[in-house]
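User: Can you recover a sequence for this backbone? Please restate the input before giving your answer.

Assistant: Of course. Working from this structure:
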């Protein structure tokens, strides 16, 4: 049996070991789930909803154990509890919404454009859904696609990140209480992910754009759909009519929650010259007041970097910006404390669009600020990126914000706030450019993507005889 170790982000120690799933293990799990899936789909949406609600109850009962394991995995205490609660709420949301959504699908027979025929729709779930999850929100993102997939009738085989695997052990105890649920985890690194793709009928991946391309290529070789939620470089435009103190509070929260290790974090801030001075002063003051969760993980606002290599990448972006003329108004230096890597909220002024901190995904609590003189220039700067996940606009009115938001090339736009996709799960959106591929995981499409439509073509008259195709009869 091959073992893999995981690092504690607060101590820096590799203090947890888990067994890596072999290809035989993965194939056996896939075969078992495929055997279970027809009965699961046959339960119907109401029956499946009842099982998901039992799963939610079991998650709630085991919340302390799940949150404790997750807190060790991520170095975050409050966010760990929010994640576990988020899984429960997701289960209840889809259990409530799913039956009505599936019942509302168009199944009525309708006349075809070709005379003498009718067409009726039938729907079937993909038999085996697969997901490869990231390390930044382990519980939420391991299940964010699996829950609606199971509500649709799929069986689900999921690989949590090997960086944050601890929660899987207590989750197995939860799953044992809901034996009808066709859900299993496979554990390990990239090889396990590749084997999972080879077994699945539909694959979802959340992570970096670079790895996402590899997943898409592997899925293409299997001729299965690949639904990808990838990186971002989210901009925030703050107009001259916005209250600078209000804008600073929103910009800070939208950029640094969960140590900025979130795909929807604001990573580029464009502020009108007229309010730049009070905005920067308020932003720097608020940033300096933010506390790191060291030495007490239950005190403070932001925790350590989960993945150690990320700390070095973020520091390199900060150093490059400073070397190119940016000023540090708060933070600026990764600190190693107790074996963990921490970065206090870092506000950078005099940032130019050519700097790495404005071009490359950061995934850390860094707030680079660029000044603009007119809104047209701000929109052009915001759209000048290879990413198109989400964006935000803060303005003097909702009307002003909406006019700007409608011109931003991103899948979801937060108006008069920031990073709202982390709070609102029923807003269907489609990522642009290198930020993703495939249907939305938000809104009703989050479930409907897992149902394949089958056309039932009905002959309403007499079937054609073979003589209808006899040579010499036409014309």
């Amino acid at each position: 049996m091959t073992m893999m170790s995981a690092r504690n982000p607060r101590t820096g120690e590799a203090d947890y070991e888990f067994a890596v799933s072999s290809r035989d293990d993965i194939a056996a799990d896939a075969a078992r789930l495929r055997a279970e899936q027809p009965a699961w789909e046959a339960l119907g949406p109401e029956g499946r909803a009842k099982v998901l609600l039992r799963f939610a109850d079991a998650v709630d009962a085991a919340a302390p154990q799940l949150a404790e394991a997750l807190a060790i995995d991520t170095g975050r205490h409050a966010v760990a509890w929010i994640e576990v609660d988020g899984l429960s709420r997701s289960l209840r949301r889809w259990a409530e919404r799913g039956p009505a959504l599936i019942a509302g699908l168009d199944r009525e027979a309708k006349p075809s454009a070709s005379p003498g025929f009718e067409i009726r729709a039938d729907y079937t779930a993909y038999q085996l859904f697969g997901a490869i999850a990231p390390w930044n929100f382990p519980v939420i993102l391991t299940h964010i696609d699996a829950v609606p997939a199971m509500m649709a009738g799929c069986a689900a085989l999921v690989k949590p990140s090997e960086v944050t695997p601890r929660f899987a052990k207590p989750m197995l105890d939860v799953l044992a209480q809901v034996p009808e649920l066709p859900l299993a985890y496979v554990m390990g690194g990239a090889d396990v992910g590749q084997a999972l793709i080879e077994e699945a009928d539909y694959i979802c991946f959340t992570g970096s754009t670079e790895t996402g391309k590899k997943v898409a290529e592997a899925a293409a070789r299997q001729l299965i759909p690949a639904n990808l939620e990838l990186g971002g470089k989210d901009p925030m435009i703050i107009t001259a009519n916005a209250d600078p103190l209000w804008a600073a509070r929103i910009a800070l929260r939208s950029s640094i929650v969960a140590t900025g290790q979130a795909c929807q974090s604001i990573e580029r801030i464009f502020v009108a010259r007229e309010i730049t001075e009070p905005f920067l002063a308020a932003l720097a003051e608020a940033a300096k007041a933010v506390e790191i969760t060291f030495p007490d993980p239950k005190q403070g606002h932001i925790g350590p970097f989960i993945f150690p290599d990320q700390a070095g990448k973020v520091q390199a972006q900060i150093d490059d910006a400073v070397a190119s003329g940016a000023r540090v108004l708060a933070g600026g230096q990764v600190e190693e404390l107790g074996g963990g890597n921490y970065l206090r909220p870092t506000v950078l002024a005099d940032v130019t669009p050519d700097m790495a901190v404005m071009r490359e995904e950061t995934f850390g609590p860094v707030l680079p600020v660029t000044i603009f003189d007119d809104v047209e220039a701000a929109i052009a700067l915001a759209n000048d990126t290879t990413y198109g996940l989400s964006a935000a606009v803060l303005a003097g009115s909702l009307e002003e914000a909406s006019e700007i938001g409608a011109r931003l090339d991103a899948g979801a736009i937060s108006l008069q706030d920031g990073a709202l996709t982390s709070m609102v799960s029923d807003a269907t959106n489609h990522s642009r450019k290198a930020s993703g591929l495939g249907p939305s995981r938000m809104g009703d499409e989050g479930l409907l993507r897992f149902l394949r439509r089958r056309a039932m073509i009905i002959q309403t008259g007499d079937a054609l005889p073979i003589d209808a195709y006899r040579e010499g009869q036409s014309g």
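That completes the design. The mean pLDDT is 97.
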